[in-house]
Amino acid sequence: MTTILHITSSMLQVQPNGPEMATLMRSNGKIYVVVAVIVVIWLGVLLYLISIDRKLSRLEHAEKEKQQLSQTSASAR
Amino acid sequence: MKAYWWKALCIILLFYTLIAGMLMPVPAKDILNETIRNLHFHVPMWFTMMVLFGISCVSSIQYLGRGSLDKDIVAVETANVGLLFGILGLITGAIWANYTWGAPWSDDIKQLCTAIALLMYFAYFVLRSSFTDIDKRARVSAVYNIFAFAMLFPLIFIIPRMTDSLHPGNGGNPAFSQYDLDNELRKVFYPAVVGWILLGIWVAEIRIRLRRLKLKSLLS
To answer: B12 at the A interface (CB within 8 A)?
Structure first.
């Protein structure tokens, strides 16, 4: 019983006397983990939005060229 | 791409909002606790909605003045994205209310009035879809759109202030005062408002350009 208690408590607690490690992601109630998740989601949505924007720009460009082409061919006739 | 500096600004401001909104110190208050951080996310939804509906209304007026279908396209797409942000505001508000006011929907006067406002804009799209003639659709819905925007002011800004409301800034509660919004919150809140508004305009811009292309290919 005491061994189980000991193991669980050592698993749950960050040892105060242990060596100093990069514990940013485990500090302050682990709020940084939430920040990381939110930033990843925003990054994903953002890249998606930018890719749609770029695709649309290409499409607009192609449409413009098509119109210019049809205009020049009409004037040549 | 003509000018994309405001898109970069939108990206930076929203990154700042998401990170600082979570990590900056906030005033400790009873009941609200950490949910006060929702200020940077729930409230800008409504600001964005108002700006987009405002652009929509101006475009409708311009359409009635000049009769160019392009203005109708701007009006319909900004209204569309504005409605999206309004729905997001309503849902996030319900989630927030569930844990602070005790229920997702407590028939608060502002909740009711914004729900009516959103229904008005749903009706705008129903109205649009009932026409087959493009010019007639644009003209009638432009007139409706202007009235719908005019109705937003009594619904959102006047009626909630005349009676008791749970919302801050209504029923005698001050909003945007020292008591409500301290300087720590302002540092994130104002950039957040600008960032979310720019995001709304960005999405609307993409939809507008898509519809312009569609119209062009329809006419040629």
So the answer is: no
- Residue count (chain A): 77
Are the beta carbons of B206 and A31 separated by less than 8 Å?
Answer: no
B209–A60 CB contact, under 8 Å: yes
pLDDT in tens, B100-155: 888 889 888 889 999 999 999 999 999 999 999 999 999 999 999 999 999 999 99
Taking CB atoms and an 8 Å limit, are B213 and A31 in contact across chains? no
- Considering only the beta carbons, identify the residue of A35, A42, A59 that sits closest to B213: A59
Q: Write out pLDDT tens, residues B4-29.
A: 899 999 999 999 999 998 888 887 77
**In chain B, what residues touch A39 (CB-CB under 8 Å)?**
15, 18-19
CB neighbours (10 Å) of residue B142? 23
Report yes or no: B59 and B71 within 8 Å, Cβ to Cβ. Answer: yes
Which residue carries 């937003």 as its tokens? B152
Contacts of A49 in chain B (CB under 8 A): 202-203, 206
pLDDT in tens, A35-53: 888 888 899 899 999 999 9
**How is B105-162 classified by DSSP, letter by letter?**
----HHHHHHHHHHHHHHHHHHHHHT--SHHHHHHHHHHHHHHHHHHHIIIIIIHHHH
pTM above 0.95, yes or no: no
Distance CA B133, CA B63 (A): 16
